[in-house]
Amino acid sequence: MTDVLRLENLSKAFGAVIVADQLSFAVATGEAVGVIGPNGAGKTSMFNLITGTLRPDSGHVHFNGRNITATDAAQRSRSGMARSFQVPQPFSGLTVFENAMVAATQAAGLRGHKAEQHCLSILEQTELLNKANVMAGGLTLLERKRLELTRALCARPHLLLLDEIAGGLTDAECGSLINTIKSIHRNGVTIIWIEHVVHALLAVVDRLLVINFGQKIAEGNPQAIMQSPQVQEIYLGIDADA
Prior knowledge:
This protein is α/β, with parallel strands linked by helices. The protein has 9 helices and 10 strands.
Protein backbone atom coordinates (compact mmCIF):
# COMPACT_ATOMS: atom_id res chain seq x y z
CA MET A 1 0.00 0.00 0.00
CA THR A 2 1.40 3.40 -1.00
CA ASP A 3 1.64 6.45 1.25
CA VAL A 4 -0.66 9.34 0.45
CA LEU A 5 1.16 11.56 2.98
CA ARG A 6 4.64 11.48 4.48
CA LEU A 7 6.20 13.99 6.88
CA GLU A 8 9.99 13.93 7.22
CA ASN A 9 11.63 15.62 10.23
CA LEU A 10 9.20 18.52 10.13
CA SER A 11 10.11 21.35 12.51
CA LYS A 12 8.55 24.74 13.23
CA ALA A 13 9.06 27.23 16.06
CA PHE A 14 7.73 30.66 16.95
CA GLY A 15 10.58 32.03 19.01
CA ALA A 16 10.92 29.74 22.03
CA VAL A 17 7.59 28.00 21.30
CA ILE A 18 8.14 24.78 19.35
CA VAL A 19 5.02 23.53 17.53
CA ALA A 20 6.72 20.78 15.49
CA ASP A 21 9.91 19.04 16.57
CA GLN A 22 11.44 16.66 14.02
CA LEU A 23 7.97 15.27 13.34
CA SER A 24 7.90 12.24 11.04
CA PHE A 25 5.13 9.83 10.12
CA ALA A 26 3.32 8.44 7.08
CA VAL A 27 -0.31 7.76 6.21
CA ALA A 28 -1.19 5.00 3.77
CA THR A 29 -3.83 5.38 1.07
CA GLY A 30 -7.25 4.49 2.48
CA GLU A 31 -6.13 4.61 6.12
CA ALA A 32 -7.86 6.50 8.94
CA VAL A 33 -5.40 7.90 11.50
CA GLY A 34 -6.42 9.56 14.76
CA VAL A 35 -4.29 12.25 16.43
CA ILE A 36 -4.50 13.05 20.14
CA GLY A 37 -2.50 15.17 22.54
CA PRO A 38 -3.02 17.83 25.20
CA ASN A 39 -4.00 21.40 24.34
CA GLY A 40 -1.02 23.23 22.89
CA ALA A 41 0.65 20.01 21.75
CA GLY A 42 0.99 21.26 18.16
CA LYS A 43 -1.81 19.25 16.54
CA THR A 44 -3.50 22.06 14.62
CA SER A 45 -0.10 23.53 13.75
CA MET A 46 0.72 20.14 12.20
CA PHE A 47 -2.42 20.44 10.04
CA ASN A 48 -1.35 23.95 9.04
CA LEU A 49 2.04 22.61 8.00
CA ILE A 50 0.43 19.78 6.03
CA THR A 51 -2.03 22.05 4.21
CA GLY A 52 0.47 24.81 3.49
CA THR A 53 -0.94 27.67 5.57
CA LEU A 54 2.24 27.41 7.65
CA ARG A 55 5.74 26.83 6.28
CA PRO A 56 8.20 24.60 8.19
CA ASP A 57 11.60 25.81 9.36
CA SER A 58 13.00 22.49 8.20
CA GLY A 59 11.85 19.09 6.99
CA HIS A 60 9.63 17.99 4.12
CA VAL A 61 6.00 17.22 3.28
CA HIS A 62 5.31 14.59 0.59
CA PHE A 63 1.82 14.13 -0.87
CA ASN A 64 1.00 11.39 -3.37
CA GLY A 65 4.70 10.82 -3.94
CA ARG A 66 5.56 14.49 -4.57
CA ASN A 67 7.55 16.86 -2.39
CA ILE A 68 5.06 19.68 -1.81
CA THR A 69 6.97 21.53 0.92
CA ALA A 70 7.31 24.64 -1.25
CA THR A 71 3.79 24.62 -2.73
CA ASP A 72 1.10 26.95 -1.37
CA ALA A 73 -2.21 26.05 0.26
CA ALA A 74 -4.29 26.64 -2.88
CA GLN A 75 -2.12 24.26 -4.91
CA ARG A 76 -2.34 21.61 -2.20
CA SER A 77 -6.12 21.95 -2.10
CA ARG A 78 -6.43 21.56 -5.86
CA SER A 79 -4.15 18.50 -5.75
CA GLY A 80 -6.56 16.60 -3.48
CA MET A 81 -6.11 17.78 0.11
CA ALA A 82 -9.00 19.22 2.15
CA ARG A 83 -9.65 20.05 5.78
CA SER A 84 -12.31 21.05 8.26
CA PHE A 85 -11.66 23.65 10.93
CA GLN A 86 -12.07 23.33 14.69
CA VAL A 87 -14.34 26.39 14.64
CA PRO A 88 -16.65 26.11 11.59
CA GLN A 89 -16.00 28.88 9.08
CA PRO A 90 -18.91 28.91 6.62
CA PHE A 91 -19.76 31.81 4.34
CA SER A 92 -22.64 32.89 6.58
CA GLY A 93 -24.28 35.06 3.91
CA LEU A 94 -24.52 32.17 1.43
CA THR A 95 -26.83 29.17 1.46
CA VAL A 96 -25.59 25.69 2.33
CA PHE A 97 -25.68 24.78 -1.39
CA GLU A 98 -23.76 27.92 -2.35
CA ASN A 99 -21.10 27.12 0.26
CA ALA A 100 -20.73 23.67 -1.29
CA MET A 101 -20.52 25.15 -4.79
CA VAL A 102 -17.63 27.42 -3.76
CA ALA A 103 -15.60 24.35 -2.79
CA ALA A 104 -16.63 22.37 -5.87
CA THR A 105 -15.71 25.14 -8.30
CA GLN A 106 -12.68 26.68 -6.61
CA ALA A 107 -10.98 23.58 -5.17
CA ALA A 108 -12.24 20.74 -7.36
CA GLY A 109 -12.41 22.81 -10.55
CA LEU A 110 -15.91 21.62 -11.46
CA ARG A 111 -18.30 23.73 -13.49
CA GLY A 112 -21.99 23.98 -14.35
CA HIS A 113 -24.26 20.95 -14.08
CA LYS A 114 -21.37 18.67 -13.06
CA ALA A 115 -20.55 20.90 -10.07
CA GLU A 116 -24.21 21.12 -9.06
CA GLN A 117 -24.73 17.35 -9.18
CA HIS A 118 -21.52 16.75 -7.23
CA CYS A 119 -22.66 19.16 -4.49
CA LEU A 120 -26.11 17.61 -4.26
CA SER A 121 -24.55 14.15 -3.93
CA ILE A 122 -22.26 15.30 -1.12
CA LEU A 123 -25.09 17.12 0.66
CA GLU A 124 -27.06 13.89 0.63
CA GLN A 125 -24.07 12.01 2.05
CA THR A 126 -23.59 14.54 4.86
CA GLU A 127 -27.34 14.68 5.61
CA LEU A 128 -27.70 18.34 4.68
CA LEU A 129 -29.70 18.02 1.46
CA ASN A 130 -32.85 19.23 3.20
CA LYS A 131 -30.91 22.34 4.31
CA ALA A 132 -29.52 23.17 0.85
CA ASN A 133 -31.39 26.49 0.57
CA VAL A 134 -30.90 27.53 4.21
CA MET A 135 -28.49 30.39 4.95
CA ALA A 136 -25.35 28.97 6.54
CA GLY A 137 -25.44 31.58 9.29
CA GLY A 138 -28.66 30.09 10.66
CA LEU A 139 -27.44 26.51 11.09
CA THR A 140 -27.12 24.65 14.40
CA LEU A 141 -23.67 23.59 15.63
CA LEU A 142 -24.10 20.03 14.30
CA GLU A 143 -25.26 21.38 10.95
CA ARG A 144 -22.27 23.74 10.79
CA LYS A 145 -19.97 20.79 11.52
CA ARG A 146 -21.69 18.86 8.73
CA LEU A 147 -21.23 21.84 6.42
CA GLU A 148 -17.50 21.81 7.22
CA LEU A 149 -17.48 18.17 6.10
CA THR A 150 -19.53 19.02 3.03
CA ARG A 151 -17.24 21.78 1.86
CA ALA A 152 -14.18 19.61 2.36
CA LEU A 153 -15.72 16.68 0.46
CA CYS A 154 -16.89 18.92 -2.37
CA ALA A 155 -13.20 19.56 -3.05
CA ARG A 156 -12.93 15.84 -4.00
CA PRO A 157 -10.04 15.13 -1.59
CA HIS A 158 -7.74 12.13 -1.58
CA LEU A 159 -6.83 13.18 1.97
CA LEU A 160 -9.35 14.61 4.45
CA LEU A 161 -8.07 16.36 7.59
CA LEU A 162 -10.60 16.73 10.41
CA ASP A 163 -9.84 19.11 13.28
CA GLU A 164 -11.95 18.37 16.39
CA ILE A 165 -15.12 18.05 14.34
CA ALA A 166 -16.92 16.25 17.21
CA GLY A 167 -16.14 18.96 19.77
CA GLY A 168 -19.14 20.55 21.47
CA LEU A 169 -21.68 18.00 20.25
CA THR A 170 -24.06 15.96 22.39
CA ASP A 171 -23.56 12.18 22.55
CA ALA A 172 -26.41 11.64 20.08
CA GLU A 173 -25.06 14.26 17.67
CA CYS A 174 -21.58 12.80 17.99
CA GLY A 175 -22.87 9.31 17.20
CA SER A 176 -24.64 10.61 14.10
CA LEU A 177 -21.48 12.36 12.91
CA ILE A 178 -19.38 9.23 13.53
CA ASN A 179 -21.66 7.27 11.21
CA THR A 180 -21.18 9.88 8.49
CA ILE A 181 -17.39 9.82 8.87
CA LYS A 182 -17.40 6.01 8.76
CA SER A 183 -19.32 6.20 5.49
CA ILE A 184 -16.80 8.67 4.06
CA HIS A 185 -13.94 6.37 5.03
CA ARG A 186 -15.67 3.32 3.53
CA ASN A 187 -15.91 5.25 0.27
CA GLY A 188 -12.12 5.29 0.09
CA VAL A 189 -11.17 8.70 1.50
CA THR A 190 -7.98 8.73 3.56
CA ILE A 191 -8.55 10.51 6.88
CA ILE A 192 -6.39 12.17 9.55
CA TRP A 193 -8.57 13.17 12.50
CA ILE A 194 -7.52 15.34 15.45
CA GLU A 195 -9.98 14.86 18.28
CA HIS A 196 -10.40 15.20 22.06
CA VAL A 197 -13.56 13.05 21.98
CA VAL A 198 -11.53 9.85 22.11
CA HIS A 199 -14.44 7.41 21.85
CA ALA A 200 -15.31 9.00 18.49
CA LEU A 201 -11.79 8.36 17.22
CA LEU A 202 -11.74 4.79 18.48
CA ALA A 203 -14.95 4.08 16.54
CA VAL A 204 -13.33 5.04 13.24
CA VAL A 205 -9.53 5.06 13.10
CA ASP A 206 -7.10 2.26 12.25
CA ARG A 207 -4.13 3.83 14.03
CA LEU A 208 -3.54 6.43 16.72
CA LEU A 209 -0.78 9.06 16.84
CA VAL A 210 0.06 10.91 20.07
CA ILE A 211 1.74 14.34 19.91
CA ASN A 212 3.13 16.43 22.77
CA PHE A 213 5.17 19.65 22.43
CA GLY A 214 5.37 19.05 18.68
CA GLN A 215 6.92 15.60 19.08
CA LYS A 216 5.50 12.20 18.20
CA ILE A 217 5.25 10.40 21.54
CA ALA A 218 3.51 7.19 20.48
CA GLU A 219 1.97 5.57 17.43
CA GLY A 220 0.12 2.32 16.82
CA ASN A 221 -2.98 0.29 17.62
CA PRO A 222 -5.60 2.66 19.15
CA GLN A 223 -6.56 0.40 22.08
CA ALA A 224 -2.93 -0.36 22.95
CA ILE A 225 -1.98 3.32 22.71
CA MET A 226 -4.76 4.38 25.09
CA GLN A 227 -3.59 1.80 27.64
CA SER A 228 0.03 3.02 27.52
CA PRO A 229 1.15 4.48 30.89
CA GLN A 230 3.12 7.20 29.08
CA VAL A 231 0.09 8.27 27.05
CA GLN A 232 -2.17 8.19 30.11
CA GLU A 233 0.26 10.40 32.01
CA ILE A 234 0.71 12.92 29.17
CA TYR A 235 -2.79 13.00 27.76
CA LEU A 236 -5.10 11.89 30.55
CA GLY A 237 -3.14 13.31 33.50
CA ILE A 238 -2.81 9.90 35.16
CA ASP A 239 0.47 9.42 37.02
CA ALA A 240 2.17 6.36 35.54
CA ASP A 241 3.89 5.65 38.89
CA ALA A 242 0.76 5.99 40.99
